[in-house]
Amino acid sequence: MCTINTEDKILNASIILFSQKGYSAVTTKEIAKEAGVSEMTLFRHFENKHNLFEKAFDKFVFSPKVIALFEEFEWDLERDLNKICSSYQDTLYQNQKIILMHFKNEELNPDFDATLFKFPNEFKKLLCNYFEEMKSRGTIRENPETLAMSFLATNFGLFVTSLIMKKLTFETDMQVYITSCIKIFAKGITC
C-alpha cells in the first residue's frame, strides 16, 4: 500500500484550496486542516504560504517532461510545433487548478506573479531558442521572440476557450484543431 508523505499531503491540499478560493483568501490554517496536519507541521516544511505556493507550483507545473521535449526535435516545423503545442496544452490542462487560482486572485502580488509566470517565461525562452535555430536554418523569416509570443498567446487562448466551451459543448476534437492551427501558423511564417 502506498502512503503519501506529509509534504505531499500539504502540497496537494494547498493546490485544491488555492484553486477554489484564490491564493490570498486561503490561510495556512485551512491548508493544514485540509492536509490533516497541524499548522506547525506546515510551517516546519514550508516556513510560509508563499514558499508553499512556490513548491506546489514547481511540483505541479514546470515538469522535466517539457524541458526534454525541447531536446528531441526533428527540425520539421509542423511536426515540432504539433509536439510543442500538444505538450503545452497537456501541461495547461494538468495544471488548470493553478490557472483558475490565478483568475480568482484579486490582488496583485509581485512575488506571487513572479512564481506564476515562471512557466510561460521559461517556455517562451525555449520557444525563442527553437525559432532562432529555425531562422538560422532558413526555415522561417520572422522575429523569433515575436513568433514565440504569438505561439504562446494562441495556445493559451485555445486552452481558455476550450475550458469555457467544454461546458457549452466544444465539438471539435482538440488534436484536429491543434493540427489545423499549426498548419496555418507554419504556413504563415515559412520562407
Automatic annotation (TrEMBL):
DNA-binding region: 27-46
The keyword Transport belongs to this UniProt entry's keyword annotation: no
HTH tetR-type domain residues: 4-64
Identification of the protein by name: TetR/AcrR family transcriptional regulator
PANTHER family hit by this protein: ACREF/ENVCD OPERON REPRESSOR-RELATED (PTHR43479), ACREF_ENVCD OPERON REPRESSOR-RELATED (PTHR43479:SF11)
Protein species of origin: Desulfosporosinus fructosivorans
Alphabetically ordered keywords of this record: DNA-binding
Pfam families: TetR_N
KW DNA-binding (keyword) present: yes
GO MF terms held by the record: DNA binding
